């Protein structure tokens, strides 16, 4: 009986050996209390019921799909429920979002992962979905559908990580990937029409800006030309007025010196200007002549008469 007891004790103690793989960490517990950790290799701990070992995977990347999940048969991903993917935006629209989240156990917080979480995958799923709803609720649908995808992924990753750290989950969020961001199926056609209208609006605006950038310089150049012409006309008018005033002053000064000569000169110059382009007949008669000899306009009589107008001929 003693030998049998010794052999049974030896077999029982031998069951305490275990192997830790390279992607695992062994957590040794005595009567359910954590006592130490063990690296990869052949390790030993008291066997059950005194001791137990937990060996969580710490380097395995795990993926959680929210909004759509691939079925086990490898077919096309199917949507489990709309309650995960339909989210309310900040401008009170509904957007349909599918995203994936990759995570792993934090090697420095393995005990938190094992002892603080009962359902790690469910916890990560709920926290990630809540973080996505909060981030989407702070934006309008236009920016969500177009420009803010990268910012949304970064914010959701940060918010999920902060929440899990507050839980003491011992989980590290690696990345968040938005798979699909669309309006709900019931109104997607209307949203596409709106997008097309906005693209047309942007195109027309760009054309208007191009036309404005071409016309405004031309208008500014024309305005500058007009202003410069007006300034030139002003300078020319002022110069002419000053010249006329200077000539008048000079004539007046000469008039003061010799009034008779100046008056005669002014009279002659005036008559020259008045009669210079007119037809003139000069009669040179001696003093005391009997009168003016009658003048027969032979030159005018020799001219051919002007034909009557067309209206006069019709009459």
Task: Give your account of this protein's structure.
- The chain has 315 residues and is of the alpha+beta class.
- The chain folds into three domains: 2-54, no CATH class; 62-186, 2-Layer Sandwich (Tetrahydropterin Synthase, Chain A); 202-271.
- The chain has helices spanning 2-14, 82-85, 110-116, 120-136, 141-145, 149-167, 188-257, 259-275, 298-301, 310-314; strands at residues 17-20, 26-30, 33-38, 41-44, 51-54, 62-66, 86-88, 94-105, 171-182.
- The strands form three sheets. Strands 6, 7, 8 and 9 form a four-stranded antiparallel beta sheet that branches.
- Helix 7 packs across helix 8.
Briefly characterize the structure.
This protein is of the alpha+beta class and 315 residues long. The chain has helices at 2-14, 82-85, 110-116, 120-136, 141-145, 149-167, 188-257, 259-275, 298-301, 310-314; strands spanning 17-20, 26-30, 33-38, 41-44, 51-54, 62-66, 86-88, 94-105, 171-182.
Which features does this protein show?
three-stranded antiparallel sheet; 3 domains; rod-shaped; Tetrahydropterin Synthase, Chain A; four-stranded antiparallel sheet; alpha+beta; 315 residues; disordered C terminus
